[in-house]
Amino acid sequence: MTHCLKSFEELIHICTELRDEGKQIVTTNGTYDLLHPGHVATLREAKGMGDILIVAINSDASVRKLKGPQRPIFTQAERATMLCALRWVDYVTIFDEATPLNILQTLKPDFHVKGGTFFQERVEEEKNAVEMYGGQLVMLDLVCDYSTTKIIEACRKLEM
Question: Is the CA virtual torsion 86, 130, 25, 144 positive or negative?
Answer without folding.
Answer: positive
